[in-house]
Amino acid sequence: MAADAETDFEALFAAAARVQPLAYAPYSRFKVGAAIRDEHGAIHDGCNVENAAYPSGSCAEQGAISAMIAGGGSRITAILVLGEGDVLVTPCGACRQRIREFASADTPVAIAGPGGIRTMFTLAELLPASFGPDNLRA
Ligand code: THU
Q1: Model pLDDT for residues 21-51, shown as the tens digit of each residue
Q2: Ligand 1 centre and the CA of 35: distance in Å?
Q3: Ligand 1: which of 20, 24, 30 to mutate, judged by most atoms within 8 Å of the beta carbon?
Q4: Which of 23, 61, 89, 110 would be 95's cystine partner, CB 3.0–4.6 Å?
């Protein structure tokens, strides 16, 4: 990995680690942080926010995307998801589609745990043959 890319992901990890403890997850007790780098180089973060009416909760990635849009970004150049425990916390299906709206097939999706990045995917690996804005223009 190039030095720039390493720096990139270190900053994303730090942002996700800052917000993960702030997650509101009293039902699952599973706190997630996410951080996005946008096309301007700015970082936006988010955490999961659950609800007593369970389906009304939102994922960390969703919060980070909202922060990106509200912050003036419109493209995801990299995203990192930070979960707890030993298993890989990959984005849920709905969040893969949400990321798809603002990212490219080769956009890196870093999956991290408490100790750092565990593995990297491209968006196309997580959501192959996806449907996106271009399909509507066809
Ligand atoms: N969750 C996320 O925020 N992002 C993911 O990538 C996976 C799951 C949240 C949703 C819910 O609040 C909790 O983790 C347990 O599923």
Answers
A1: 999 999 999 999 999 999 999 999 999 999 9
A2: 14
A3: 30
A4: 61
The one-letter code for the residue type at 94 is A
Tokens 């999956």 found at: 111
Domain-by-domain residue ranges, the chain?
Answer: 3-124
Structure tokens at 9: 């992901």
The beta strand positions in 20-90, using DSSP E, are 33-38, 43-47, 76-82
Ligand 1 centroid–CA 2 distance in Å is 30
Q: Taking the model in full, what pTM does it have?
A: 0.95
CA distance 107 to 90: 14
Q: What whole-number distance in Å separates Cα of residue 116 and Cα of residue 33? A: 13
Of all protein residues, whose CA lies closest to atom 6 belonging to ligand 1? Answer: 91
- Ligand 1 midpoint to CA 6 (Å): 25
